Structures are given as C-alpha cells and as structure tokens.
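Researcher: Please predict.
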Amino acid sequence: HKSQYQKGIDEINQSHVLIAHGENDEVVPLSRAKKGADILQDYGFNVSFISDPVAHKIGSKGVRALKEFFQ
C-alpha cells in the first residue's frame, strides 16, 4: 500500500501546468514567472512555459497553447 504522501507525489508527477506570461509585463516580471515555473518543475510538475511580447495579458501564443492545453 502506498502512503498518503506517496499518493500525493504520484498525482503531482502526473500534473501538467501551463504558464503563459507577457515578456513586457510590468506587474509581474518575466524572471519571476520563469522562477515560478522552475520551482514547480523542481517539485515534479510537468510545466509548459509560454511567453509572448505583450504586457500584463495573454498573447496569441498563450491563447493557442491554452486552447491545446484543454483539448
């Protein structure tokens, strides 16, 4: 039998996270978004990171990636 902790780790390892971020974001710097993605990967999440040359919004690449993410 797996412990509750191990079951949680297995679920994380199967989790896919999409981060879409604006390269010109003045609210949340791109470096902070990348660091967040790195931390999630360190914890075992499958992270897709998309950036677009926009400010604090989702750009066209992010919208396409979001659409694919939910299909």
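Model: The chain has a mean pLDDT of 91.
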